[in-house]
């Protein structure tokens, strides 16, 4: 039986954390900043809804939720932590001690009983930032650069003509053209599962044939994100975890993290990063500030804009999906090419959701991998918070 315990109540979080851990506390505020009166009104409007969601989480409506955080205008409005007994929960499942056994409580959802929580595919969004920084600093490469020359030292079927045309942008936008099955994680032929069980990740991806022309069709592909991690290493000369420490984590004050290493000595850029939720929220704040942290431009505004734009207008046009995709970021809501909500999304209930119009960030950590919850945390922002803000 799960136990839930609220640690922190909304609107009472410390000033120290607001300024140091999340806020940049810059002297130059954005033009048209929201006034103190407007801030107070917004907080009051959101507070009741936040409390309602919190009570529903405690009631179990959203399944196994570990953390729920709301930040607006760089102020933490709410931060709830819920305690789950994952050791007991895992007992009815296979608990083989392996980093890709998602039911082993030493590996998931927290790393070894620390505050470091698995991000799963939100890792892709962070990895994209690191590639963007690499391209910002190196004029020899752009998103139009062909991808295959980065893998000349690997043996794979390179006779596929279409494969030679894959660009970095095709990989970033999940339009690689590679044949890939990642729809159902219970399917024994799921390519992501087979990838994680293999001893040579990059070779596994490179040997996949193409089934469409690169750049033409969205097909969610964690293998593409693996290739992007290697490309970043080739451009920078540094493994991506070391590049992250230097160019992203240290500037943002992120001192603790864990990042899985693959059997072939690379870093798992498709789902292997663990961060504290406070540090994950910093990523959202960085993007709200168009790549700036304090006075430092960590990542170019151009890259932030491209990453969070609906380059793929619809991930499933046949079913009239309104969800788009950028550079490893989901565009949950957009209108006439303008992004209204963008997000990093990960397996089990990892959500970093950002609403630029309202300077709003909503973050969830959870671990709903075996049972479908009654309600989805992904819907909290779109269905409950945004409608309230629009009518205030």
Automatic annotation (TrEMBL):
Give every Beta-lactamase-related domain span: 111-364
Q: What is this protein called?
A: Beta-lactamase-related domain-containing protein
Pfam families, sorted? Beta-lactamase
Q: Which PROSITE patterns match?
A: PROKAR_LIPOPROTEIN (PS51257)
Domain of life assignment: Bacteria
Protein source organism = Winogradskyella aurantia
């Amino acid at each position: 039986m799960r136990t839930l315990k609220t640690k922190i109540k909304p609107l009472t979080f410390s000033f120290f954390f607001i300024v140091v851990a999340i806020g940049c506390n810059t002297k130059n505020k954005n033009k048209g900043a929201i006034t103190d009166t407007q801030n107070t009104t917004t907080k009051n409007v959101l507070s009741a809804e936040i409390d309602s969601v919190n009570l529903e989480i405690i009631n179990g409506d959203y399944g196994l939720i570990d953390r729920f955080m709301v930040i607006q205008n760089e102020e933490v409005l709410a931060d709830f932590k819920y305690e789950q007994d994952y050791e007991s929960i895992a007992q009815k499942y296979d608990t083989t001690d392996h980093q890709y056994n998602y039911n082993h409580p030493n590996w998931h959802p927290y790393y070894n009983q620390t505050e470091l929580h698995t991000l799963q595919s939100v890792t892709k969004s962070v990895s994209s930032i690191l590639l963007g920084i690499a391209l910002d600093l190196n004029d020899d490469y752009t998103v139009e650069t062909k991808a295959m020359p980065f893998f000349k030292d690997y043996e794979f079927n390179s006779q596929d003509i279409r494969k030679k045309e894959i660009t970095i942008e095709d990989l970033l936008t999940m339009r690689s053209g590679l044949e890939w099955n990642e729809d159902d994680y219970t399917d024994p032929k799921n390519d992501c599962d087979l990838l994680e069980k293999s001893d040579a990740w990059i070779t596994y991806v490179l040997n996949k044939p193409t089934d469409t022309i690169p750049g033409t069709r969205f097909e969610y592909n964690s293998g593409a994100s693996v290739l992007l991690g290697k490309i970043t290493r080739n451009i920078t000369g540094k493994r991506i975890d070391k590049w992250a420490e230097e160019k992203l984590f240290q500037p943002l004050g992120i001192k603790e993290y864990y990042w899985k290493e693959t059997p072939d000595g690379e870093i798992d850029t498709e789902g292997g990063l663990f961060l504290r939720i406070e540090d994950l929220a910093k990523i959202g704040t960085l993007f709200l500030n168009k790549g700036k942290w304090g006075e430092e431009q960590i990542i170019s505004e151009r890259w932030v804009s491209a990453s969070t734009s609906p380059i793929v207008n619809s991930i499933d046009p046949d079913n009239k999906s309104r969800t788009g995709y950028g550079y490893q970021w989901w565009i949950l809501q957009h209108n006439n090419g303008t992004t209204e909500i963008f997000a990093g999304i990960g397996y089990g209930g990892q959500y970093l959701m950002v609403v630029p119009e309202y300077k709003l960030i909503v973050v969830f950590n959870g671990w709903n991998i075996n049972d479908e919850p009654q309600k989805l945390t992904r819907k909290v922002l779109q269905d409950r918070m945004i409608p309230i803000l629009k009518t205030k």
